[in-house]
Design goal:
With 245 residues, the chain is α/β, with parallel strands linked by helices. It has one domain: NAD(P)-binding Rossmann-like Domain (Rossmann fold, 3-Layer(aba) Sandwich). The chain contains 6 helices and 7 strands; from the N terminus they run βαββαβαβαβααβ. Strands 3-2-1-4-5-6-7 form a 7-stranded parallel β-sheet, sandwiched between helices. α1 packs across α6 and α3 runs parallel beside α4. The chain binds nicotinamide-adenine-dinucleotide. Nicotinamide-adenine-dinucleotide binds next to α1, α3 and α5.
């Protein structure tokens, strides 16, 4: 299937690692041009279709300058894949979390979803079939113990996506959300103390490419009637009844 992404300009926040990096690679293979917004862009192998733009998604002037850099380079923005996020407080009791830590999580995982979209919107509005996809988490709907702050931030990201889809319908801009369960990335290895990876896990684990494929599909015009949705990539776990049928 042709995803019709040829030459489209896509911003991938958090695209220097994990899910974002897999998404950037897949989008390039599909013919798109990709601007990676990340704190660290030294790992981004730049080409005529891929640029790394140093950017802190928490910081409005940094985001604004990054958007200007993309428009200066390619003259348009068709899509935003909003992937940058942190999960630094996994395993912490809620009373041990400081206000500084709480605010940092919300600044990256919530404000950091909003600012790149806010500044991309004037450019998205100029394109037919513009689409946004936000990476939340299954933690927006179910909680592992010791993860209250992350779950709260991902619940906000999911609701942000749905509410934004309502506001942007008038502009013909779609907004969807992907909610993965565990994905084998540097972030999850750090958070779950799995330096060697998840080969010994007794639960299913996504590959970053599994999520990249869902993200690419949702910004593709082929899913033009899919809007305001949160797609769970969790192997069906949250659909299961607690009743032992
Ligand atoms: N890995 C999982 O199990 C999993 C599951 C569900 C959801 N997610 C979500 O997927 C997204 C990607 O996670 P990942 O596992 O690929 O993590 P990762 O750590 O491998 O990649 C995240 C990227 O975001 C960047 N980033 C962090 N703070 C930033 C900031 N302030 N400004 C710009 N860039 C910033 C990092 O530099 C990094 O390159 C996150 O939103 C995460 O919460 C991950």
């Amino acid at each position: 299937m042709d995803l019709e992404l040829n030459d489209r300009v896509v911003i991938v926040t958090g695209g220097a690692s994990g899910i974002g990096a897999a998404t950037a690679t897949l989008l390039i293979e599909e013919g798109a041009r990709v601007a990676v917004f990340d704190l660290h862009t030294t790992t981004v192998s730049e080409s005529d279709r891929l640029i790394g733009v140093p950017c802190d998604v928490r910081d409005e002037s940094s985001v604004s300058a990054a958007i200007d850099a993309v428009v200066a380079r390619w003259g348009r923005i068709d899509s935003v894949v909003s992937c940058a996020g942190i999960s630094t407080l996994f395993g912490r009791s809620v009373e041990s979390v400081t206000t500084v830590e709480w605010d940092e999580m919300m600044q990256v995982n919530v404000r950091g979803q909003w600012l790149p979209i806010k500044h991309a919107l004037p450019h998205l509005r100029q394109q037919a079939s513009a689409a946004i996809v936000i990476v939340a988490s299954d933690s927006a709907m179910v909680a592992a113990p010791g993860d209250v702050v992350y779950c709260t931030s991902k619940g906000a990201a999911l609701t942000f996506a749905r509410a934004l889809s309502v506001d942007l319908q008038v502009d013909g801009i779609r907004v969807n959300c992907v909610c993965p369960s565990i994905v084998d990335t540097p972030q999850s290895r750090r958070a779950m103390d799995k330096a060697e990876g998840f080969a010994d896990a007794d639960y299913p684990v996504n590959d970053p490419l599994d999520i990249a494929r869902a993200l690419a599909l949702l910004i593709s015009p082929v899913t033009r009637s899919v809007n305001g949705q949160a797609i769970l990539a969790d192997w069906g776990y949250t659909a299961m009844s607690s009743y032992p049928a």
